[in-house]
Amino acid sequence: MNPFIIQSSFLVPKFYTFIFILISILLTFLVRNKSDKFFYSGISLFVSILIYSIYHIVNYGFEISFTKSKIDISYFIFCIPFLIMYLIKNNDKKKDKITIANNGYK
User: Fold this and answer.
1) Long-range own/partner contacts, residues 68-75 (CB < 8 A, 24 or more apart)
2) What spatial distance separates the first Cα and last Cα of the chain, rounded to whole Å?
3) Following DSSP, what letter does each residue of 13-28 receive, concatenated?
4) Which of 42, 70, 72, 83 could form a disulfide with 56 if both were Cys (CB 3.0 to 4.6 A apart)?
């Protein structure tokens, strides 16, 4: 069996899949530069996993969701590489601005 079919049919209703896609599409309109795409990709993943977690907490309760493996909190790790890349890219931009300011260039 295909794992994507299993996850999409058993873990959350199909309606939520459309919400996740809509969130991703809406966040693309907030991207202003190249490093923003990393930030909003990470946020999109984080929000999707958060909605998935809230769905299970509402249906099964907090304790059962975490102790009986209804929620896999390791999915939150998926957004970390995108957010780290955003921090690296923004840190490089700030260093460039400081170097230019210290050299007297505008």
Assistant:
1) 75/49
2) 59
3) -HHHHHHHHHHHHHHH
4) 70
Domain count, the chain: 1
Average pLDDT in the 7-20 region?
A: 76
Asked if the model's pLDDT at residue 97 lies above 70, the reply is: no
Decide which of 36 and 92 is more confident: 36
* CB 45, CB 20: distance < 8 Å: no
pLDDT higher than threshold 90 for residue 82:
yes
DSSP 8-state secondary structure symbol assigned to residue 1 = -
pTM over 0.85, yes/no: no
What distance separates the 2 farthest-apart alpha carbons in the chain? Answer: 63
> What CA–CA distance (Å, rounded) separates 50 from 19?
12
